[in-house]
Structure formats: structure tokens, C-alpha cells
Design goal:
The protein is of the alpha+beta class. Among the domains are: 169 residues, no CATH class; 45 residues, no CATH class; 131 residues. The protein has 18 helices and 14 strands. Strands 1, 2, 3, 4, 5, 6, 7, 8, 9, 10, 11, 12, 13 and 14 form a 14-stranded mixed beta sheet that branches. A hairpin with a 3-residue loop joins strand 13 and strand 14. Helix 13 crosses helix 15 and helix 17 runs antiparallel to helix 18.
Length: 553
């Protein structure tokens, strides 16, 4: 096929599912909340917000445990299962090794029923049903991931492309001449079950975004996203809140899309490219045929294990760019649309978790790097308190990175080839391995610096102790030779002996403190004394300098 677009009919997207996975960095808790972790503080605020803690979708009632949940569970390797679902809950567990829960803590809100999007001014709005609104917290990580799953039926393919391009942007990247936010939806509205508007976007408020960036040197997010996340509040916002977050990457949120269309074999190459790269290609612009991503589209982004391009099928194509995962298949195929055993069930379960883990890895590594940069920026080597804070932050970051490596960092998620292939494709485009190596080297360099600084301080202490020991050795040998009887302190009254002892202690304390204060120049004198190349005059000149005097001419 050539890289040019050819005219083709626009098929209807019979079933559309999409999930946004938005990672955000959580700021360290203040002193008032340091007794708990982020999710514990969040849960304790339960009466003031609609987010509710859920264990997981694995209910204790086997009658409510669906086959799609079972298929999800057995798709992953045991150590990934323990991360996602916790350890076994057998009654035979050893009492000294109780079963551990999952390090992933999920909160869900159910007060929002739909999302109404007006993509462009004057267009009819698109109504998306809300399947899930979840927040994922993680043990030991200052990170939260927002998951928004929406669905719709019978959408035009051009509408879906425009929706994928505009939906999932945290803030406008600029403004049109008419004042509309650039590349954003014209209007986004969260609706409750009765159709009442809970919150709406405000990307047309240009002054709000300009003023915020000018004042805080940080981007401001649209109001409909801010309202969704409360009681989490933006880090630099004037809004009060114990739990604060900041953006990790660009304003475009990672997205997954499931498209069940009529006869996907009729799509030409240009349509495939626009679907797979929908978040990067403006729907109104010509296809950039000389762009490497377009020229190498099939080899770089497509996974065609289930694409046969035949009447019998299956005709399912997976397209992954790292920041997006798009699955396109035949709406008439039960293999593709079955909610329990088909690709749809896997998309909402196995592939969602693969996408979540890949972006958890990347976001966590970027947070580790951000903490290192922030620690270095706050370091003032002239301030002892600043140096101590720097050391504590680096050591704490190093310990957390070790726990992240052993608890969250995987290369193999599944023995099923396609699931593992999608994970490798996603992680590869995100450059997770390269980022991991870079962050590990940064943390190792910081740790080595702290170790070398500690060794330097210990060496200085050893030098001082060596000088004091040598001086003490002289006094010990001298007093030992005379048997400690040069001056008889053992006679006289108790008061006289006490005064003698106190005077001697003061003299020795002064001598020792003086030796400590001049230990470095005295160590230089001892080193010079052992240097055969120096004359006796030069050696005692060093001693004279060690006593705080200028060397004699």
C-alpha cells in the first residue's frame, strides 16, 4: 500500500469503549496528616466527597464472580497476580505470615452517569455513558491514577476520530482567534443520573490559564477535571486541601479505545493511520505522508496476530503507540464483541491492566526523577539543616526505589503471547527500560555521593582520634614511667583532693579540645615528621603552624 489516502466509505462505529488513564504525582502529606498514607487520608474524608473505597471486583460471593474476572486473573503470572489482587486468603496461612493485601487501593464514584461532549461550536453533542470512574492509589508511591471508562453506540467514524483527538486534554494548548481552546472539546459536561450538569469545562477562560501560569509557573487544569478529582486539589491552587497533586507529563492523557465497526476490511491505509494515530493527527489536516510514524505505521505500531483480512476472520487489529492503545474489529463478530469471552472483555480487563501497569511504571520513574531534581534544587551546602534534609530525602527515595523495583517492576506479565506482546509494545514506545536505567543511575550516583561524604567525615574523625591518641600515648608513657607519683594527690583533705581532681580534669579537657581543634594541622605535622625528604627545621615549622603560629623564618 502507498502512504496516500484514498476515498473510502465512512463506516459506523457500532460500539465504542474508551478509557483514560491519567497519572498524577501526589505531594508529600503535611505534618497534620503524616500519621496516615494518602489513600488512608482520602478514605477518612469519605463524608465530604463521593469517592468510595472498593476492595476489588473479586467478590467473596462465588455466584457474583463472573467468568471474565476469572479469565483476567489467570492471564497473569503469579507475582503479577499478587500485585493486582493480593495474596491468597486461605485459612491454612501460617499465623506468622498472614496474607497480604494488594498494594493497589481503588476508589470509585457513582454519582456521575454520563459525559456530554460538544466537540465543536454548533455541533450536536455526543453523549457518552460512564462505565467506571476510579482512582488508583499505590503503596509506597506518591502517585495516583485516574481511570475514566466511557462507552457509546452508533457513532460516525469521523466523529470518533475527532473525539479521540480532542477528548482527554487537561488544559488548552492555546486559543483560536474566536477564543475557543485549541484542540480541546468545545464543551465537556458531567451529568448525573437525572441529566443535571454537575460540572462543565472552562477552556474558553483564557485569562484564568494565563494568570495561573504567570503566577505559579505551573499549568492549570480545566474545571471539569478539577471538580472530578476533588478533594484532591492542584498543588499550586489557592483552594484548601490536604491532598494535593501536580501533573507529571504533557496535558494529553493516555487513552485506550475499542471500536467495533462494520467490516473493518474496507478501511484503507489512510483511515487506519488516522485511527491509530488519532491523538497526534489533527482530523482537519492532510495526512503527513513523509512523517516517519506514518511511513512505518504497520511495523512500529500494529500488532496483527488476530488480523487475517479474510471473510472468515478474525479481523481484529491492535494499534499501540505507547500513549494510546486502539483495538479495531468487526462489529458482527462474537469473537470481538462478547462481553464475557471476547476481545471486549479482554480489552476492559486484561489489556486495561497491561496499559495501567505500563503507565504506572513510567509515571513512577518520572516521580522518582522529579524528587531527585527537587532535592538537589533545595540543597544549600552552606546550611547544615538543608544538607541534613537533602540526605534524608535521597536516602528515603533510594529505599522507596528499591521497594518499587521488587514490588512493581516487571518485564514479564503473562505467558500468553499476545498479552505479553502488547505489554512489550506499550512499554517499548514509552521507553520504560531506558528511563528505569537512567533513574537508577541517578539514584545510584546520589547514594554513592552520600556514602563518599559519610566516609570522608569518618576519615576526618579517624584523623582527629589518631592525633589525640598519639598525644595521649605520650602522656600515658610519661606518667607510667614515673608511676603516677610525681605529685602526691592522694593526701590532704577531701576538699583539696576534689579541687586537685577538678583542676586536672579541666586541664586535660582544655588540652583535648585544643588537640581536636588543631587535629588537622597536627596530623599534617605528623605526616611531615615521617617524611624523610623534609629537614628538621621544616618539620618543626609544620608544628609551629599547627599551634597557630606563623612558621619561623
Amino acid at each position: 500500500m502507498n502512504a496516500t489516502e484514498s476515498p473510502a466509505a465512512q463506516p459506523c462505529v457500532r460500539l465504542f469503549h474508551a478509557s483514560l488513564v491519567w497519572p498524577l504525582q501526589l505531594q508529600a502529606l503535611t505534618a497534620q496528616a503524616k500519621e496516615g498514607r494518602h489513600w488512608e487520608v482520602f478514605e477518612n474524608l469519605g463524608e465530604s466527597h463521593p469517592w468510595q473505597r472498593i476492595d476489588d471486583e473479586f467478590t467473596d460471593d462465588p455466584s457474583q464472580f463472573a467468568e471474565r474476572h476469572y479469565r483476567e486473573f489467570v492471564s497473569f503470572l503469579p507475582y503479577v497476580q499478587r500485585f493486582l489482587y493480593g495474596e491468597g486468603r486461605s485459612r491454612n496461612t501460617a499465623p506468622d505470615d498472614p496474607p497480604g493485601g494488594s498494594p493497589m487501593h481503588v476508589f470509585r464514584r457513582k454519582d456521575i452517569a454520563a459525559l456530554r461532549l460538544t466537540l465543536r461550536p454548533g455541533q450536536a453533542p455526543v453523549l457518552l455513558d460512564i462505565a467506571h470512574l476510579d482512582l488508583y492509589f499505590f503503596h509506597d508511591l506518591d502517585l495516583v491514577q485516574l481511570n475514566i471508562e466511557v462507552r457509546a453506540t452508533n457513532l460516525a467514524l469521523d466523529t470518533v476520530r475527532d473525539l479521540l483527538f480532542r477528548f482527554g486534554r487537561a488544559y488548552p494548548s492555546g486559543w483560536e482567534e474566536n477564543g475557543e481552546g485549541l484542540h480541546n472539546v468545545h464543551l465537556a459536561e458531567w451529568l448525573d443520573a437525572t441529566g443535571q450538569v454537575i460540572a462543565r469545562s472552562d477552556t474558553a477562560r483564557r485569562e484564568k490559564y494565563l494568570g495561573y501560569v504567570c503566577e505559579h509557573r505551573s499549568p492549570c487544569i480545566s474545571e471539569h477535571w478539577a471538580s472530578l478529582l476533588r478533594p484532591l486539589v492542584l498543588a499550586h491552587s489557592d483552594e484548601p486541601g490536604e491532598l494535593r497533586y501536580r501533573l507529571i507529563e504533557y496535558q494529553r492523557m493516555p487513552a485506550m479505545a475499542f471500536l467495533a465497526i462494520d467490516n473493518p476490511r474496507q478501511l484503507d491505509r489512510g483511515q487506519w493511520v488516522r485511527l491509530g494515530l488519532a491523538t497526534m493527527l489533527h482530523p482537519d489536516e492532510a495526512l503527513p505522508v513523509n512523517e516517519p510514524a506514518v511511513q512505518e505505521f504497520e511495523s512500529r505500531f500494529c500488532q496483527d496476530r488476530f488480523w487475517t483480512d479474510s471473510e472468515r476472520g478474525p479481523n481484529t487489529r491492535f494499534i499501540c503507540t505507547g500513549n494510546t492503545l486502539t483495538v479495531v474489529g468487526d462489529a458482527a463478530s462474537a469473537f470481538f464483541t462478547d462481553k464475557e469471552r471476547g476481545v471486549l472483555a479482554q480489552f476492559r480487563h486484561q489489556y486495561f491492566l497491561v496499559f495501567l501497569i505500563a503507565h504506572l511504571h513510567r509515571a513512577s520513574l518520572l516521580v522518582f526523577s522529579e524528587i531527585l531534581v527537587d532535592a538537589v534544587n533545595d540543597l544549600d551546602i552552606r546550611d547544615d539543616d538543608s544538607v541534613r534534609r537533602f540526605k534524608r530525602r535521597i536516602r528515603a527515595n533510594f529505599e522507596t526505589f528499591l521497594r518499587f523495583t521488587h514490588r512493581y517492576w516487571f518485564h514479564e506479565l503473562s505467558e500468553r503471547p499476545h498479552i505479553q506482546a502488547i505489554y512489550r509494545l506499550c512499554a517499548g514506545h514509552l521507553h520504560n527500560d531506558a528511563v528505569y536505567e537512567e533513574v537508577r543511575d541517578e539514584i545510584r550516583e546520589m547514594s554513592n555521593y552520600l556514602d563518599s561524604d559519610s566516609q570522608r567525615r569518618q576519615s576526618n574523625t579517624v584523623v582527629r582520634l589518631t592525633v589525640i591518641t598519639i598525644l595521649g600515648l605520650i602522656a600515658t608513657v610519661t606518667t607510667g614511667y614515673f608511676g603516677m607519683n610525681i605529685i602526691a594527690f592522694g593526701e590532704g583533705s577531701m576538699l583539696a583532693r576534689s579541687l586537685h581532681g577538678l583542676l586536672a580534669a579541666l586541664v586535660f579537657v582544655v588540652l583535648i579540645l585544643f588537640a581536636v581543634a588543631r587535629s588537622k594541622p597536627l596530623s599534617d605535622f605528623l605526616e611531615a615528621l615521617s617524611d624523610e625528604r623534609l629537614s628538621l627545621r621544616q618539620k618543626f615549622g609544620r608544628l609551629w603552624g599547627a599551634l597557630g603560629k606563623q612558621s619561623p623564618p
